[in-house]
Design brief:
165 residues; alpha+beta; 22% helix
Length: 165
């Protein structure tokens, strides 16, 4: 394992979590690759040995659609679902580098737990998932090219998913 690359990736993931937790969505958007693919899937419960898709799509995003979501979440009063804004905390763990065929990219697997609360309005919500990321190593730093998120839950127990994973 390339320890320097691992350190860079880990720092990038921690910086990303901090940007999202402090609602700096447009700054987070600036860390994405032009050709980013961002997908979040709910878990589909299957019987052991049963074949089929691994999940139902909740989000299938690209750079433009992510920009729209970032602008909406950054505009006070734009979204009723996020007024007052929820507080989130991203916990990223089990970070593992995986080999790729290109020296300019790195694949990263991780687990994430997002804690979200809106004060005394609702009980807190926990969102647990596995992530598979592909980062491009550019002169401007690591850029997220692909994120595939597989939720642990089959049923999302919250009124909305107005946060990034």
């Amino acid at each position: 394992m390339d320890e320097r690359l691992f350190a860079r990736v880990y720092e990038h993931l921690m910086d990303e979590a901090a940007l999202l937790d402090t609602r700096q969505f447009l700054a987070w958007h600036a860390t994405l690759a032009e050709d980013v693919h961002y997908a979040v899937y709910a878990n589909l419960v299957r019987m052991q040995g049963e074949e089929g898709p691994s999940g139902a799509p909740l989000f299938l995003e690209n750079l433009a659609s992510l920009r729209t979501r970032c602008e909406q979440l950054s505009t006070p009063g734009f979204s009723v679902a996020d007024n007052p804004p929820a507080a989130t905390r991203h916990f990223v763990t089990n970070v593992r580098l995986r080999p790729t065929d290109s020296a300019d990219t790195c694949r990263v697997d991780s687990n994430v737990l997002v804690y979200r609360t809106r004060g005394s309005d609702l009980p807190p919500y926990f969102f647990s998932a596995a992530r598979e990321d592909l980062f491009a190593d550019t002169p401007q730093g690591l850029r997220l090219q692909r994120r595939v998120v597989q939720c642990d839950d089959a049923i999302i127990g919250t009124r909305n998913l107005n946060f990034f994973v």
